[in-house]
Amino acid sequence: MSQLLNYKVEGEGHTIILIHGLFGNLDNLGLLARDLRTDHQVLSVDLRNHGQSFQSDEHNYALMAQDVFHLIQSLDLKKYTVIGHSMGGKVAMKLAELAQDQMTQLVVLDMAPVEYTQSRHDNVFSGLKTVLAQKPTSRKQALDILSQHIELEGVRQFLGKSLYNSGDHLEWRFNVESLWNNYWEILGWAPIERISTPTLFIKGGDSDYLTNDHQPDVQKQFSAAKAHVIANTGHWLHAEKPAEVLRAIRKFIA
């Protein structure tokens, strides 16, 4: 039997499952969780090769969706809403194919059901690998190393949340080697059978992860899809404009 993902459950009521993106962990959608747990049961997960979940040489959407489905079955959840950001949005879409009878609604944050062909994380990977090679002993040291590769402080701070002390130096909680080796799997996508689960795609107005060009792919795979744009925000829309994102989510799931 496959290993269980690390997870956290908060609140009571209809279950909402939150799935983070690449280099993240189960606290990434914490701003959403804090609001939603007031009237729902919120299940936050660490995907494989992330957070405190198991590490594996294999990292693709079929397996990641299976991991989440296995956890759902072990917790005996019958009906649930799923919200995923970025890579987690693709995991959520793949999960919808496995669990359409149980998934009442799906919310995808700034991700399209398509294969992306352009590498977007070369600088991030070079920063992560340099940290591994130089074995910093303090968080400040690690962030200084990252700053030589990654311009945006917000990105460095986000990555810094996955640093931990392994004894004599800092390491990453996510599995850099596996994510690097499987990067084209992460960018990739095998289209799913068309599903009728009500689905909301929330796009960051300034982001190019989800564009009008993706509309035919969305409609081919989701027969009940709606879109909502959050203006003046990028790919990290839930961190930049949590109130607007929550309003859109709550209106959709009400």
UniProtKB/TrEMBL annotation:
<dbReference type="InterPro" id="IPR000639">
    <property type="entry name" value="Epox_hydrolase-like"/>
</dbReference>
<dbReference type="Pfam" id="PF00561">
    <property type="entry name" value="Abhydrolase_1"/>
</dbReference>
<dbReference type="InterPro" id="IPR000073">
    <property type="entry name" value="AB_hydrolase_1"/>
</dbReference>
<dbReference type="GO" id="GO:0016787">
    <property type="term" value="F:hydrolase activity"/>
</dbReference>
<protein>
    <submittedName>
        <fullName>Alpha/beta fold hydrolase</fullName>
    </submittedName>
</protein>
<dbReference type="InterPro" id="IPR029058">
    <property type="entry name" value="AB_hydrolase_fold"/>
</dbReference>
<keyword id="KW-0378">Hydrolase</keyword>
<feature type="domain" description="AB hydrolase-1">
    <location>
        <begin position="15"/>
        <end position="242"/>
    </location>
</feature>
